[in-house]
Amino acid sequence: xxxxIEKSESAADGLxxxxxxxxxxxDAEKRKRNAFNKDAPVFYQQLRTEGLDSLLTQDHSTLPVxxxxxxxxxxxxxxxxxxxxxxxxxxVRNAYQAILKREPDDVGLAHYLRAVRSGRYSKIDVLSxxxxxxxxxxxxxxxxxxxxxxxxxxxxxxPVVGYFLRLGVAIVRLPVLIVNFRQLETHTTAQxxxxxxxxxxxxxxxxxxxxxxxxxxxxxxxxFQTKLVDFQEHLIELRKTLRFQINSLEQNHTTLKHSQSAxxxxxxxxxxxxxxQVQAWERQAAELxxxxxxxxxxxEDLIERVQKAKMELAQRETRLLQRLDGADKSSDALVVSDxxxxxxxxxxxxxxxxxSLEEALRGTPEQIKEExxxxxPRLQTAGVASDILDVGCGRGEWLQLxxxxxxxxxxxxxxxxxxxxxxxxxxxxxxAEARAYLASLPDESVSAMTAFHFAExxxxxxxxxxxxxxxxxxxxxxxxxxxxxxxxxxxxxxCNFYLDPTHKNPIPIATMTLLLESRGFCCQxxxxxxxxxxxxxxxRDQLTSHMNHYLYGPMNYxxxxxxxxxxxxxxxx
Amino acid sequence: xxxxxxxxxxxxxxxxxxxxxxxxxxxxxxxGHEVCIFADSTNLPDEQVQPPVATASYLRAAEDVLxxxxxxxxxxxxxxxxxxxxxxxxxxHNVTPPEFFEGISEQHKTLCQSGRSQVKQIVxxxxxxxxxxxxxxxxxxxxxxxxxxxxxxxxxxxQADQLRAATANFELLDGHDDGNVxxxxxxxxxxxxxxxxxxxxxxxxCYDFDRQxxxxxxxxxxxxFGLYAARLRQLIEGWSIESRIVFTGExxxxxxxxxxxxxxxxxxxxxxxxxxxxxxxxxALKIPIIAYASxxxxxxxxxxALIWEERDPFLMAQSIDFLQANxxxxxxxxxxxxxxxxxxxxxxxxxKQFLNVTAQAGFRF
Lengths: 573, 365
Known about the structure:
- The complex is a heterodimer of chains A (573) and B (365).
- Chain A is of the alpha/beta class and 573 residues long.
- Helices cover 63% and strands 10% of the residues of chain A.
- Chain A has helices at 10-13, 17-33, 35-39, 42-50, 52-56, 80-84, 88-100, 106-118, 123-131, 134-139, 146-156, 161-324, 331-334, 351-362, 365-372, 376-381, 397-404, 416-424, 434-440, 460-473, 490-494, 509-518, 542-552, 568-572, and strands at residues 77-79, 142-144, 388-391, 409-413, 429-431, 446-452, 474-485, 522-531, 554-562.
- Chain B has helices spanning 16-30, 55-58, 75-83, 106-124, 135-143, 160-165, 170-175, 195-208, 226-238, 253-262, 277-284, 297-301, 313-325, 327-345, 347-360, and strands spanning 3-7, 10-11, 34-38, 41-42, 65-70, 87-92, 129-132, 151-153, 182-186, 214-218, 245-249, 265-268, 289-292, 306-308.
- The model of chain B has no long low-confidence stretch (mean pLDDT 94).
């Protein structure tokens, strides 16, 4: 298994990376050594070499330091003079360091300084006070000579006697005090000389610094001057190169300009050609579209004519067969009066039962009227307003709906109870057998014919005869609407269809449309109606979708068919 | 069709691990598999993730696959990974060493510590395959005990293709068309990214070569690393180059492309990278790269960049100047980068590597 990421083909590039990086490294080193020290700003140099902190805490220790008092050396044992050699604050601090072995606190320091400076305390008093304090006793530092003098200083404070004692000692020590005073005078002069010497030394040091700085500036200036000359030379070189490059660029520019203008001409010509081509295509497309519309119209006309011929043929075929059968039903005999064709009385024995059966199975009149509303717009679109015949009108719900919506319609049914029921509703309904009644109608006298839940009551031959008679009686362009149970719904096909014992066979949608077209009708639309209300499985896949369709799908369907010929609305105009 | 769960702590924008997760899903869904991402959270408006605890109910069959992306301590992720009965693939992006977060973010330090120790726990679960984002990560995994024969390098899916296809922000481009040298670094402002060295190198270039140079630091600033960012800003003030450096924060793809196009070079001084996606983006967009070698940086860029072992600001500065002055070398370098990108790091190249490695380990993707 390949784990290695493929390497770039560096060898083919001709770029020697190692060599190139060596060059960069050398240049960087050079810059570190030279350019950086001389050219970079002082701040930057120091920052580079010592870091930012060094700038913030610069050390000026190169200047000489003046010290007028000797360094204090901390020990366990002192001679009195070791401590008396210091003065003022240095004396108090060193006394603390020597006797209490610590720095004086602020209060102590202030107290003793005040006492010494006012003359109230001598140095012996300060040392005694510290040495014989509880803290001093604890530290127990030996100061040779302090004990006697301390006792003497205490005696000085005894009233009267103390005064005379101080006077006596002063007289005795007068020569010593004079010597001390002279020593002090000499010492002060010597210290002043030292201060003057120090000041001179500092001044001399500062002068040296200035000279060094001037020297540095001069070096930098010279370096800068050299670089300026280099830079000027570089500029001259650069100018030459630039001039050369500008010339070359100008040439390129001219070439490009020519190419650009040639390209522009070419582009213009191509654009023009393309535009013309597009226009030609657009023209062709428009012509083709017109041709397509024309062809579609011709195909529609052809279908129409074929269906018309088919219908005429079917009707002639039926009549011929009737004649061949020797029946005495000539076309003249089929023309009957408004009276219903004679029926056998025993045919009406079960009229009452069928009427109640319909009431039980079909639903309430209001429901049926509501469901039938779907056909109203189809009649309007086809230009039908009158001459509507409802075959098998039953309780007349559809006729009522038509009347309520301004249509003129009549119905026939062979059930006397139903006919009586309709007449009570003042509907124009006759008792008649459908085929015989249709045969009695003149040619092309009905605008629309409806047959709801009628076809499934007829045997096939009777249905064919019914369709042929309907085709003859309808005006060209007239509508035939047939509604019947839908056997695609398995419950309807296997069970509910047979609840009505007068039903013959369920008719699948494909059979119905084929039958209509074979008899010359044009099938306009198939409406799948009345799915089982309120019961649907949630659709998750193809199976659940099929289950819904076959178990809970439309229980009825209707085919809207048209007799070939011009629309009724055109006829009116 | 295989059912696949991808586990990652979070799914966020401008994040290398998230881009790898999304690229993997794109590939697997395109090949007809059912893929679901499990994470604690996401800030991507078009993405929905499932909580890690739901992994066990999602993956029930032995032939299902779990892909676990490891980059930081994630207890619930490890727990979910252990709970499934199916085949498991580990994508290892490396974990930042916790020392980087010392004194800056205790929370990140703890997360990285647990992330490091969880590598051994992961190995203890005996996954079927380990995918390391780089050879550096691969050796890390093997050191932690992964079986060598199960451990392979597959670079992370990235957004360089989208970056190449994006339309740049022209307002930004025009606003910087002044001929000044522009340097760029891309990546979150995090303590492992070595920004101090970057600033030092840039200051050296400014003071020694070009005071008009500028630098963009492109990447999200996390509040958790506020102290780190504040120190960087102090450092920049110390160098007096605050007018020359811009922290852009997180930017859109279009804006990121513009910064790449403006840049004369990408500087990479990061101290810890498991792969380093910005190098890939720079190679895809033909931007020269100057970097300090550390962790996976050298193996990702290889000879398509100037990479220095010593962290010396003078080398960086001199390199920038060299590329400015040597157009030919610069062009050859970016050509190498572009070829390297096409061959190894474009999403189609990574898809091939991913499918090849997983197929040989017995996965039918």
